[in-house]
Amino acid sequence: MNNNDVLRRVRYAFDLSDSDVISTFAQADYTVTREQISAWLKRDDDLEVVRMDDVELAAFLNGFINAKRGKRDGEQPAPETELSNNAIFMKLKIALNLQAEAVLELLASVDFELSKHELSAFFRKPGHKHHRPCKDQVLRMFLKGMVLKHRPEDK
User: Fold this and answer.
1) End-to-end CA distance of the chain, in Å?
2) Which of 26, 60, 64, 138 has the fewest CB atoms within 10 Å around its CB?
3) pTM for this entry
């Protein structure tokens, strides 16, 4: 999945305005403008769309964690320079304070079955013998389940 799509889906699921997105970035001590947000949110086939890089999405997700769970004491983590689907999935899981059962319920709500063992493999460190890369389809289904849970009127 591309980073712009992840931002669009999270923004839609939680009904975030441009101001909310700006303040979410600010939670991670990252400054963005309304023009940047507008350019990121344009349709993929729009000629004026600007691709969001990994550092920008990581800053948004770090801010989202801070907005949902509160800032942790001390220095804030720096946004990652490279994000995988696994890292995006983990950051959303942390922000929403979801346990494995809740994630599996979200996936089941969109008719996507996954075992607890398959799910835990996504959250293992790369290099661990049971680590598995999270494919676009899994992340897409998780985001779809998130939309269904937080915007049930839009089924």
Assistant:
1) 22
2) 26
3) 0.92
Residues in the chain: 155
Q: Is the pLDDT of residue 152 over 80?
A: no
22 close to 34: Cβ distance less than 8 angstroms? yes
Separation between Cα atoms, residue 53 and residue 123, nearest integer Å: 22
Q: Which two tokens stand for residue 72?
A: 């942790």
Closest CA to 39 of 54, 49, 26, 51: 49
Report which DSSP code applies to 154.
G
Q: How many CB atoms lie within 10 A of CB 12?
A: 16
What is the C-alpha separation between 86 and 107, in angstroms, rounded?
15
Query: How does pLDDT run across 9-57, given as a tens digit for each residue?
Result: 999 999 999 999 999 999 999 999 999 999 999 999 999 999 999 999 9
| The pLDDT value given to residue 155 | 52
* Sequence-ordered alpha helix ranges (H) in 28-69: 34-41, 54-69
Strand, helix or coil for residue 5: helix
The whole-chain average pLDDT of the chain stands at 93
